Structure prediction request, 309 residues.
Amino acid sequence: MPEALKFGPPIITADIEDWPQSTWDHSLPISSRAADNTRRLLDILARSGVRATLFVLAKFADAFPELVRQMDAAGHEVAAHTWAHEEVFRKTPQQFLENARRTKDLLEQVTGKPVLGYRAADFSIIRDTLWGLDVLAEAGYVYDSSIFPVERPRYGIPDWPQFPHRVKLSSGRTIVEFPIASYTAGGRNWPVGGGGYHRLLPGWVTRALARRVMHAAPFVFYCHPYEFDPREFAEIPHHIPWKVRLHQGLGRGRFEARFVAFLKAFSGRRMVDALRERQWPDLDIETIARGTRGANSKSALAATIHKDP
Prediction:
């Protein structure tokens, strides 16, 4: 039986994309390999009896609309993951708004259902792009899951709260933010939410950390269909430097077994289920934006948020 925890089961999410197109060259078409890997993920979820939130790249939905409809028919939540995996900081607010609306519109045409959630490429809502939350609210999204409360070279807001909040935006709008799971130790937050961290760490370690997180906050897990494909770099027709192959490919051969063990231990749910089950505390974006620029950012955050009971 899956373990019952105060803030469980974990929220299972996947970013539905194609590694060469999303990571190597945004101009590439979506390959049939991406569709095959996605079908593999859907089969694993079906065998595990878990429904997930699938953040679908618009280019993927445009190339494989019937597969996206199969996701919806299987009970998974279809959410948005940009048009072609462009980072927020490479867009002006107006360009980002147009991209977010275009992505939402396409996915809604494919599924015939409202798209509530969004995840930015490479977790690129960072300190300098917090304006992106206001843009997403304007575009009609109800929630976002783009912020990783850790400190990494390319992404992360390390003093962002580790549990979901309803963010009060400068425009007067609101949006719920579901941060990716992290674990606090040694005075800092460590990434434990999935992806490469679950490929590289032993399965028993990631399950133990997830268990600890879910005593205090919801656990947002993420992965990509290509992480279930250990032969990709040996077979794709692109010249990829060995360092990139190592960083992006290490642990793929073990990932499926670890993912299945994670679902067996905890089961899983969709983000929309977590969204509907409770009223989230409020977070004031203007105070955060000011606070994260200075040395006293953590105290500024502590002063403006209401902790979960």
Remarks:
- Residues 11-304 form a domain with the TIM Barrel fold (CATH 3.20.20.370).
